[in-house]
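User: My advisor asked me to double-check a structure prediction for Phosphate ABC transporter ATP-binding protein PstB before group meeting. I don't want to rely on an old file, so could you generate it fresh from this sequence?
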Amino acid sequence: MSQPDSNEEELTGSTNYTDELLIETAVEAERSDPRRTPESNVIEVDDLSVYYDDEQALRSVDMAVLEKRVTALIGPSGCGKSTFLRSLNRMNDLIDAARVEGRVKLGGKNVYDGNVDPVALRRRIGMVFQSPNPFPKSIYDNVAYGLRVQGKADNIDLDQAVECALREAALWEEVADKLESSGLDLSGGQQQRLCIARAIAVDPEVILMDEPASALDPVATSKIEDLIEQLAEDYTVVIVTHNMQQAARISDKTAVFLTGGELVEFDDTTKIFENPESQRVEDYITGKFG
Ligand SMILES: Nc1ncnc2c1ncn2[C@@H]1O[C@H](COP(=O)(O)OP(=O)(O)OP(=O)(O)O)[C@@H](O)[C@H]1O
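Assistant: Sure, here is a fresh prediction for Phosphate ABC transporter ATP-binding protein PstB from the sequence you gave:
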């Protein structure tokens, strides 16, 4: 019986015509999806542990965040999801008791290196919080805020930048005629979209969202979910959610943290929800605990 010619196999990169067809079809499908670019990691997390005083909240986590994808962080209360999220843009620096070990690389550089300015880092990795927190300023000034702080406002068409961010946040149609009204006068869902507009106005590489819809009603939640999917055409999104259906609906990748700050499984969202590797993850997904 003749053996396959391994050299030819290596050279052609495929074993037969059917394989080639399958690969071409997959590549074509990849190309026709506007979000599909060659997959690359924006953030690489390496052996990350976080402590609050003596309590360890994250245990040696390794993970990568793919560009222009939605990555969901799920797991029971207290398992370290928010701690992990805050580690990515050094928001834990603001908590006295917090201590971080390990590396978080953005574009290959460890954000915990001594020469990294956390404020500049947070412009590259923006954040949207659980409760909408617009500044007590006009809608316009909320969105323009970051550009002004960065000193960019004088060099660009600020009106256009504000409109563009509000459009991207799916809020423009609702506020175009009242840009000078206070951001605080908007509904909760509109306030959250305003906060998203404020975050994207400075063109961050990554947007972190900590349960961005948990304070909103179902209609406002659905708008935020649609918006997140839309945003992932241009931005990388990492979202903490308690809502497993939400994670399944909107994310490409899911990380499951379990008690003690352990990242138990990280994979394609469909794999996590349909066929997880770990029994503990299956038990959590099917509601046996948590
Ligand atoms: N500022 C803090 N000071 C001290 N301990 C903290 C602080 N923040 C979080 N922790 C502790 O770290 C652990 C992880 O908390 P974290 O908020 O990251 O979990 P979580 O998964 O986001 O929880 P939840 O889903 O309830 O928001 C918990 O034991 C929590 O009590």
